[in-house]
């Protein structure tokens, strides 16, 4: 009898965890997409969340795309002077 009463609770917890996971994956995708399409946003990320930007750079370098980090650094250095 006890197992039957816990079943609805377990389903609710599972659904909640699944929803949080899906929200997290969607949020990570949106963040990655924004960083991938906007150099200005990457500059903002470099100031506020450099570790997240580092993960972005490493992931695109791991996929075989090189040069984005260097392009960003060159543009940001030129903008300062």
From TrEMBL:
InterPro entries cross-referenced by the UniProt entry: CEBPZOS
Keywords: Membrane, Transmembrane, Transmembrane helix
Gene: CEBPZOS
Name the record gives this protein: Protein CEBPZOS isoform X2
Annotated organism of origin: Phyllostomus discolor
Transmembrane segments: 12-32
């Amino acid at each position: 009898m006890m197992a039957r009463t816990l079943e609805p609770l377990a389903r609710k917890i599972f659904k909640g965890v699944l929803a949080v996971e899906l929200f997290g994956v969607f949020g990570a995708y949106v963040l990655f997409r924004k960083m991938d399409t906007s150099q200005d946003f990457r500059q903002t990320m470099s100031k506020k969340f450099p570790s997240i930007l580092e993960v972005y750079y490493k992931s695109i370098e791991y996929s075989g795309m090189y040069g984005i980090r260097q392009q960003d650094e060159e543009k940001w250095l030129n903008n300062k002077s």
